[in-house]
Amino acid sequence: MNNKVYDILKWVAIIVLPALSTLVASVGPLWGLSMTDEVAQTITAVGTFLGAILMVSSVQYKKG
Fold first, then answer.
1. Secondary element (H or E) of residue 4
2. Interacting residues of 53 by C-beta distance below 8 A, sequence separation 6+
3. What does the pLDDT read at residue 59?
4. In which region does residue 32 sit, left (phi positive, over 0), alpha (psi from -120 to 50) or beta (all else)?
5. Do residues 40 and 26 touch, judged by C-beta distance below 8 A?
6. Fewer CB within 10 Å, N- or C-terminus of the chain?
7. pLDDT, tens digit, for every residue of 13-61?
8. How many Å apart are CA 50 and CA 62, to the nearest integer?
9. Which residues contact 36 (CB under 8 A, 6 or more apart)?
């Protein structure tokens, strides 16, 4: 993975997905949307997984 892809994925994992999860959890019920908790938890899980994968990639890069 090149640096540009890594930087974009890191930005998505650290900024975009947590912000999106918060938005869904906060605004969804106000608008009467169903399953907002499930959607927010799924977004959080994807962000956590992506962060873990990026950390592994970073550690491997620094070793090499």
1. helix 3-11
2. none
3. 79
4. left
5. no
6. C
7. 999 999 999 999 999 999 999 999 999 999 999 999 999 999 888 877 7
8. 18
9. 24, 25, 28, 29
**Tokens representing residue 37 in the block:** 């908790």
The amino acid present at 18, given as its one-letter code, is P
In the structure, what pLDDT confidence band is assigned to residue 11 with cuts at 50, 70 and 90?
Answer: very high
> Is the CB of residue 35 less than 8 Å from the CB of residue 62?
no
Can you tell me the distance from the alpha carbon of 3 to that of 17, in angstroms, rounded to the nearest whole number? Answer: 20
Q: Tell me, what amino acid is at 54?
A: L
The DSSP annotation for 26-46 comes to HHTGGGT-TTHHHHHHHHHHH
Q: Which amino acid is at 57?
A: S
pLDDT surpasses 80 at 8: yes
